[in-house]
Amino acid sequence: MTILLWFVFLFVIYYFFIHKRLKYKNGSISGAFFFEDDCLVLNTGVPYPIPYGEIERVELHYSQRELDSRLSYSLWVWVVRKNGKTKKVYYKGYRTAKLALPSDMKAALEEKGLPVVMVDK
Question: pTM, whole model, 2 decimals?
Answer without folding.
Answer: 0.81
